[in-house]
Amino acid sequence: MRWDVIRSEITYRCRIFSVRRDESRSPRSGQAHDFHVLETPDFVNVIPLTSDGRVLLVRQFRHGIREVTLEVPAGLVDSNEAPDAAALRELREETGYTSLRIEPLGVVHPNPAIMNNRCHMFAAYEVAQVGPPQWDATEELRLEAVALGRVPHLIRSGAVSNALTVTAFHLLELVTTHP
What is the pLDDT of residue 179? Predict the structure, then answer.
């Protein structure tokens, strides 16, 4: 089942990803085929939960679909940074909140057909505001506090459509109902 890589090269680089072209041989036919892979650092998603049963979500414009989405705070893991530290950093940068208790929910491969990275999912409990958000030059977010019980409706209605946000809430549900 494993394909042999004959040749591999980076064909494009930018700030957040590279495109790798692999020429690989089919184990069934022996034929060579080209595959393109997005190489990107791992990233994190964090579900910020308040002590009064709300979750903090962010609205932001997403260039891939050219629409505003409603998501959990998320971002890239910096080199030599632990995923839980990245989750707390992204929470602070995007919302101005932090937490003394963060727990892993799981790790997924966002799209293993064309991407080489993983997404680490976390829940941050009893989040508290410690200052204003610290957005980078490409971020313009609007923070929304939503009752956690409303999240399934937001997902079913399409108001929350980011697959990794949906996955994070599914993992949270699994952890809380099937520890």
Answer: 63
